[in-house]
Write a structure and sequence with these properties.
The protein is an alpha/beta fold. The chain has one domain (about 5-10, about 25-200): Vaccinia Virus protein VP39 (Rossmann fold). The protein has helices at about 5-15, 25-35, 55-60, 75-85, 120-135, 165-170, and strands spanning about 45, 65-70, 90-95, 105-110, 135-145, 155, 155-160, 175-185, 190-200. Strands 3-2-1-4-5-9-8 form a seven-stranded mixed β-sheet. The protein has a two-stranded antiparallel sheet with strand order 6-7. Strand 6 (about 155) and strand 7 form a beta hairpin. It is globular and about 40 Å long. Bound molecules: S-adenosylmethionine (SAM).
């Protein structure tokens, strides 16, 4: 099964409380975005947004320039339906981030539990090329992955686990690691998953 088919099946067949990564409030992401100076004049893209509630929080903070990117059309359709009329001010892009052709730049790049699926070096290089190309100089990226003591798989797929320092080394010298958090995520059925969240500033 292709990766895209995997994710379409997941979002078509499972309810939110069957998704291990579901969280009611993306509190650590928001804490780090606030450290980055999040304000309504900023543009933001959520990579692998899925059905995350981050967009709801960004709309509450009156951001008018929000893009959600995901390889699953079903996930973005579910988000569009949940937002209702508010979705009119959000851009939805269905594609694989590793083959995406960005046509503009953003102040904020957010990724929770997407980069860790890129287990092949060429996939990581493709992701980092898109991050470099589409984040403004001085812009900020929040990247959350399973931590070194986190699970070895997510949604049944193998993942790479990171510490903030190893993630910083992977991204390269163009990105300054300016803050980090460890977070114990509890799945909807109560299992604990260890995440690291890193905030980078593009030089
Ligand atoms: C574990 S879920 C996390 C969803 C969301 N970020 C959250 O925190 O709730 C991973 C998401 O990334 C998407 N995804 C996985 N690989 C991707 C890729 N290469 N390009 C774009 N989206 C991808 C999946 O469809 C899924 O929605």
């Amino acid at each position: 099964m292709s990766k895209q088919a995997h994710w379409e099946t997941v979002y078509s067949e499972k309810s939110e409380d069957e998704l291990s990564w579901h969280q009611a409030t993306p509190s650590v992401s928001l804490e780090l975005l606030d450290l980055a100076g999040l304000n309504k004049s900023m543009s933001a893209i959520d990579i692998g947004a899925g059905t995350s509630r981050l967009v709801d929080a960004l709309l509450t903070r009156r951001l008018g320039d929000i893009t959600l990117l995901d390889m699953s059309a079903a996930a973005l359709e579910a988000t569009r339906a949940r937002l209702g009329a508010a979705s009119a001010s959000v851009r939805f892009t269905v594609c694989d981030v590793t083959s995406w052709q960005p046509s503009r730049c953003f102040d904020i790049w957010h990724d929770r539990a997407v980069f860790h699926f890129l287990v092949a070096p060429e996939e990581r290089a493709a992701y980092i090329a898109r991050l470099s190309e589409s984040l403004k100089p001085g812009g900020h990226a929040v990247i959350a992955t399973f931590a070194l003591d986190g699970p070895e798989k997510c949604s049944g797929l193998p993942v790479m686990r990171y510490a903030p320092q190893t993630l910083a080394e992977t991204l390269g010298a163009d990105f300054d690691l300016i803050a980090q958090r460890h977070h114990l995520h509890h799945t909807p059925w109560g299992s604990a998953q260890s995440f690291q969240y890193s905030l980078f500033r593009k030089i």
